[in-house]
Amino acid sequence: MAADLQAKYTKLALEYSKLRAQNQVLKKGVVDEQASSTSLKDQVKQREQSLRKVEQEMDSLTFRNQQLAKRVELLQEELSASEAKGKKSKNKGDSPSQQGLQQTQSVFDEDLQKKIQENERLHIQFYEADEQHRQQESQLKVQLEELERDHEQHQAIVDGLTSKYMDTIERLQSDKARLEVKSQTLEREAKECRARTEECQQQLRKCQSELNRHVKKSSIVIQEKVPFNDTKFSDYNSLNVPPHNRRHQLKARDVAGQALGFVQDIVAALLNFHSYTEQRVHIYPLDSSIEPISPLNQKFSQYLHENAAYVRPLEEGLVQLHQSITEDTVTVLETVGKLKDFADHFTSYTHFLQKILPYQLKSLEEECWTPLCTSSLTSKNQELQSDMKRITSLFDKLHSYISLLALPSVRQDSMPQSSSSAVFTQLAACLHSLHDAVKEMSTHYSQKASLEQELSTITQKLRTTNECLLASLGSLTSSTGKIATFFSNNLDFFTSSTGYSPRGGAGALNPLQAESMLGNKKKASDYMHAIRKPRPETVPYREALLHRRVLTSSTESREGLTQQVVASQEKIARLEQEKEHWLLEAQLGRVRLEKESQRIHDLETQLSSALGGGGSPAHSLGQAPGSPALTSLEDGEVEERGAGKEAMLSNSLVGMLTTTPTNEDVGDEESREQLIKTHYMARVGELTTQLQVSDSKAVNFHAECRALAKRLAIAEKSRETLTEEIKLANQNITRLQDELATTKRSYKEQLSMMSDHLCSMNETLSKQREEIDTLKLGSKGNSKLLKKSR
């Protein structure tokens, strides 16, 4: 951790030094640009001064030109006047004064011509100087604008780099402070670790001394007490328990489980393929004039119908092989006996494929004989024939390799380790070839199905069967590809040495002695578990003597209370039984009373009908002396009729006894048994209904509890996720607050720098304005002087 922090700090320091060097270069560039800008400004001032001088010269030349023009005008006027005078005095002849005037006029003409030429030349020079000045002025303005833009860009870059460097410096300072705190913490931890290391070294030295002493003691005991060395002879040594490689066992069980899953997928795909092939054999003829199924195809269909008897044992054999591989067993080729059973099942399936191969080829050949079979279908059938031959041969090769791998579990020294590695390698290559062959056959079958779709006589059943066949072939292709890739990825595990060998010697395990070795291993494990089992704690003898009387009295009192509780429970149970018995007897007595009342009522009815309108028998019987029983019966009948012949209820477990009066004359015993039976059956039905209702309520309650538990788990997970999100949000808020504070600080610094820059710019502008004002005043003074000189 300290090295990482030091490397990080070094990296940050290097970056800081690089940025600082870049900052120095940029500052130097800015200074150079400022110097060049100052020099260009000076050049502009000089050019302006030269421009003002040229303007002044221009003004003076213009003034001089105007003077010369006025003089020329005067001379032309004088010339015209002299010419007029000359015309008047022509006839008078030339006088000496006229000749002098003509000479003077010729001199003035020459002088005028020279002045005109000089004026033209000055005008041309002035125009050229003006154009050159304008061009230079425009070029200098463009350069000045470019320099100002460069200056602004450089200034922006400098400002950005300055802010960036300030942020970097602050971050580096904070990192430095944090790293200093961490370095101090790491130093403290290092000191503690050194202290613990010294303690551990001392303990290690003590342990080494103890172990050396124990080794010496054990070697002395072995030399004196162990005269027999069981690793000296290989026959005895093979019975020793080899060192247990638990990681190899876990890996072997995991590999076997994955292989079982792939084989189950292959078995399902093979079952579907054989079943749909059988359906296709039955429904393929597309012409109704052809016999639906030939005897050959019928035989082929019978064989295909038996495919499950050969395919299912493959899965069962591999399941048994996976179950035999546990964490406590020794898994090598010599001890895996279930691999031989799987090899036998694979042999039977290979024989089944060889048995149905001629029928498959003949069935495809018969399809080619049908009138509706086109040339393209014939070619696809021929390709499928070659694919089936290739797949059958590949399954035969797989059977050979699996049988070779199963040999060491039957006979020792049947195959060395190098040969088993080669067999595993060839098995993986054969699985890849099988995947390629199945994939090619799936492609050919798909092309054949698409060709059959174009036929006009194809049925919907055949179309569905073709789709199912293609789906099963796709599943078989995927499964074979997965198991081939699985074997290739785990080839190092299959070909590596397991490390299981007897102690003190080399060689493989004897499969005939593997069972005895595993039994010895189990006994050794049980023995070690027994001697490592902690003994229960015992009570000291003196303490046991002190508490013996208390324990005896408490035991006796507990036994007496137990006996009293048992006797009370028996008495309560007996009383409950008697209660139930008498309650049932009372209910039966009421039933008999009801029957007697009904019988008396019937007799009264018969008697009244026999007497034919005589007195009321009930009244006469009621007035007869010595008839209290009849009176009580009538009272009971009145009560029963007043209650509306309702059912009698009981609070016991027997429940409710319901009776309905009948007109049949049934004996007391039979009616009693029938009533009891009816009562108990009704009670059983009620209790069953209550039990069903209770069960349904319990199921609903259990479902609700599970739903609530799931909701609680989901709520707990959501609470944890929300807690994590809140923590992240708080961290983000803290980080954003820090960034906001840093941004505010940098903005404040930038604003202060900008204000300083604006102040400096204002000062430079005021200076330039003052210079311009002075120059304007100077130019005005010069123009006034020129006007005065004119």
Question: Mean pLDDT across all residues, rounded?
Answer: 76
Helical proportion, percent range: over 70%
Overall outline = elongated
Give the end-to-end Cα distance, rounded to a whole number of Å: 94 Å
Structural class: mainly alpha
Q: Secondary-structure element order, as H and E? A: HHHHHHHHHHHHHHHHH
Beta-strand content: under 5%
Main sheet makeup: none
Low-confidence regions: 286-291, 613-666
Task: Count every helix, treating DSSP H or I runs of 4 or more residues as helices.
Answer: 17
Number of strands: 0
Radius of gyration: 63 Å
Biased composition (Basic and acidic residues): 42-51
GO molecular function, one term: RNA binding
Coiled coil: 130-210, 558-585, 705-746
Region (Disordered): 30-51, 80-102, 608-632
Describe the structure using short key phrases.
790 residues; mainly alpha; 17 helices; 83% helix; PPP1R21_N; PPP1R21_C; coiled coil
Topology readout:
Layout: H1 2-88, H2 96-225, H3 234-237, H4 246-283, H5 295-305, H6 308-324, H7 338-369, H8 375-406, H9 417-453, H10 460-489, H11 491-495, H12 511-532, H13 541-546, H14 548-611, H15 617-623, H16 628-642, H17 668-789
Helix pairs in contact: 1-2, 1-17, 2-17, 4-5, 4-6, 4-10, 5-7, 6-7, 7-8, 8-9, 9-10, 14-16
